[in-house]
Design a protein that fits this description.
By secondary structure, this protein is an all-alpha fold. It has one domain. Helix content is 84%, strand content 0%. It is built from three helices and no strands. Helix 1 packs antiparallel against helix 2 and helix 2 packs antiparallel against helix 3. The longest helix is centred in the middle third of the chain and has 37 residues. The model has no long low-confidence stretch (mean pLDDT 94).
């Protein structure tokens, strides 16, 4: 396997992992919404339990987003190098820069979201 294919497989792996982690995270956020819709003042124990699970989810997602950015950076290096790119893998490197920026923005938004949820759960 060549360097380009390995870089794309790495990116695809992280993207797949992110999808699964986002699904799990969304389920936790749904549980949080349900908790507060059923009870305006849930017990400290329930809030602490959910807070720990949500923070663990945030940590896994943030780590995987950072790994995805690393994978995108590797792809950018390859596309900017003198390596011969097969026709079926040709693309404008600008798209990779845009994807990297969007992912970095998502990381920052997730950090803000995590802070808001932690404040809500005390």
């Amino acid at each position: 396997m060549d360097e380009l294919e390995l870089a794309w497989q790495t990116y695809d792996f992280h993207t797949s992992m992110i999808y699964d982690l986002e699904q799990d995270h969304q389920e936790l956020i749904s549980r949080l919404n349900k908790l507060f819709s059923i009870n305006l003042d849930p017990s400290k124990t329930k809030k602490l339990f959910l807070k720990k699970k949500i923070n663990k989810s945030f940590n896994h997602l943030l780590l995987m987003y950072k790994k995805q950015i690393d994978a995108i950076s590797d792809l950018i290096k390859i596309y900017k190098s003198d390596m011969l790119i097969p026709k079926e893998r040709e693309m404008n490197v600008r798209y990779l820069f845009d994807l990297k920026n969007v992912t970095a923005t998502m990381i920052e938004e997730f950090k803000v979201h995590r802070k808001e949820i932690n404040e809500l759960l005390g």
